[in-house]
Design brief:
mainly alpha
C-alpha cells in the first residue's frame, strides 16, 4: 500500500465513499493469486523444466502445442497486464521526482516540467530494462528489492495519520536511517542479525529514529496539525499539543 502510484490513484477518487469502498474491496485482489499458485504447481509437475522460474507460464504454453491464436492472446494479455502497472510506476516516479524533488526549489515552466518528466520516464524505464535483461534478475528479486525501500514510507504515513507528535525532522531522519539500513543489509547479507528481509530491519530502525527525533524536536504548530484532522479530532489534539 506504500507504492506512490497507489497514492496517486487515491487522490483521483471522486469522494470519500469511493475511497472507503476501495479499501473494503481491495483484499479481494488476493483471489487473483490463486491461479498463479496453480500455474506454479503445474510448472513443478510438468515433464520439462523452464529456463527460469519467471518463464513457467510461457514454457507451459509453448510446450503443450496450443493453437497460435491462444498463444497470441496470452502474449497480448501478458503485455497489457505489465503495461497497466508499468506505466503508472514510471509516471508516478517521474512526477514525484519533479513535483516533490525539484519544483519546490527551482521555478519550472510547464513546458520544462513536462520535458523533464519525459526524460525521467525514459531514464527510469531504461534502468529497469537493464536490471531485468542485462542483470538477468528474476521478477521476485526485483520486487523484493523494491519493497525494502518502498516500505520505509510506512512509518511516516502512519505517523501522520495516528501520531500527532511526529515532526518533519523525525520523518526525514527515520527515512534516511531506514533506507541506509535496508541498503546496507542488502549489499552485505552476511551481517544480518536475523534471517529476515532487510526491509524489515530498515523498518525497525526507521520507527525508532522517527520516534526519538520527533520527541527531541519541537512539535508541529497547532494549525498545521489541525489541517490534517477531522472536526471531531481537533479538541483532543489541541489538548495533547498543550
Amino acid at each position: 500500500m506504500m507504492w506512490p502510484h497507489l497514492f496517486m490513484k487515491a487522490f483521483t477518487a471522486r469522494d470519500e465513499r469511493t475511497l472507503r469502498r476501495t479499501v473494503v474491496l481491495f483484499p479481494t485482489f488476493q483471489l487473483f493469486l490463486v491461479p498463479l499458485i496453480l500455474v506454479g504447481f503445474a510448472g513443478v509437475l510438468f515433464p520439462s523444466s523452464p529456463a527460469n522460474a519467471d518463464s513457467v507460464l510461457p514454457h507451459l504454453i509453448l510446450e503443450t502445442s496450443l493453437p497460435a491464436l491462444i498463444v497470441g492472446l496470452f502474449c497480448a494479455g501478458a503485455l497489457a497486464a505489465s503495461m497497466s502497472t508499468g506505466d503508472t510506476l514510471l509516471h508516478g516516479a517521474a512526477s514525484i521526482a519533479i513535483e516533490d524533488g525539484i519544483s519546490p526549489f527551482v521555478q519550472l515552466s510547464e513546458a520544462r516540467r513536462k520535458f523533464m518528466m519525459q526524460v525521467l520516464v525514459l531514464s527510469i524505464g531504461g534502468f529497469a530494462y537493464w536490471l531485468a535483461i542485462v542483470q538477468q534478475r528474476s521478477l521476485v528479486w526485483l520486487l523484493l528489492t523494491a519493497y525494502g525501500i518502498v516500505d520505509q514510507l510506512a512509518p511516516p504515513v502512519y505517523g501522520a495519520l495516528f501520531w500527532r507528535r511526529a515532526t518533519t525532522p523525525g520523518v526525514l531522519a527515520g527515512l534516511f536511517a531506514g533506507i541506509c539500513t535496508t541498503v546496507f543489509f542488502f549489499l552485505n547479507p552476511t551481517f544480518r542479525p536475523f534471517e529476515i528481509h532487510e526491509g524489515i530491519l530498515g523498518l525497525v530502525v526507521n520507527i525508532a529514529v522517527l520516534m526519538t527525533v520527533s520527541l527531541l524536536t519541537r512539535a508541529q504548530s497547532q494549525p498545521h496539525v489541525q489541517s490534517f484532522l477531522t472536526p471531531a479530532e481537533e479538541p483532543a489534539v489541541a489538548e495533547s499539543l498543550r
